[in-house]
């Protein structure tokens, strides 16, 4: 191997060791199981190596983690779409038939709660909204949230605690139902 290839391999090795948990998390977030997520990360690394060795793609050193995450995300989506991994679609009528409470009502309640929660999140201040989105919706670790927002880890925890209190209060408020 050439010196350039050795440098690329060393750089990729360091990047993967530092980012492997995040790359697996990206694949898991796309709906893959643990084993499939690890396989997906491996496939993405092979794809990245093939692209760089063939000269089709050059990536700056700082951009490698984001580029790998994009490859992992696409590979995970493609893998999830495979027929043997796709979850079968069940008819709502079949699911409702044996339930005490109709499933459609439960789904409707869940959707209403989701809309209320989204409205409550939108009422938070910008920094709290960003912390809640990154920590809960994107499932990023607190250290990563702090680094991406340019604040301390302790402040992330404080903002998250305050946001939880506000969200609980907002969700507990009675909703006005339309009059018949």
Task: Report on this structure.
73% of the residues lie in helices and 0% in strands. The mean pLDDT is 80. Helix 1 runs antiparallel to helix 2 and helix 2 crosses helix 3. The protein has 180 residues and is mostly helical. The protein has 2 domains: 79 residues; 78 residues, Orthogonal Bundle (Arc Repressor Mutant, subunit A), CATH 1.10.10. It is built from 8 helices and no strands.
Fill in the keyword field for this structure:
2 domains; 8 helices; 180 residues; Arc Repressor Mutant, subunit A; 73% helix; mainly alpha; 0% strand
Entry summary:
It is built from eight helices and no strands.
Compile the SSE list and pairings:
Layout lengths: L2 H27 L4 H20 L10 H18 L10 H5 L6 H21 L2 H12 L4 H8 L3 H20 L8
**Average pLDDT over all residues:** 80
* Shape, per Cα inertia axes: flat
Poorly predicted parts: none
Number of helices: 8
The structural domain count equals 2
State the separation between the terminal residues, measured CA to CA. Answer: 76 Å
What is the chain-wise order of helices and strands?
A: HHHHHHHH
Q: Which secondary-structure class do the elements indicate?
A: mainly alpha
Largest β-sheet summary? none
Radius of gyration: 22 Å
Helicity level: over 70%
Count all strands and give the number: 0
Oligomer: single chain
| Percent of sequence in beta strands | under 5%
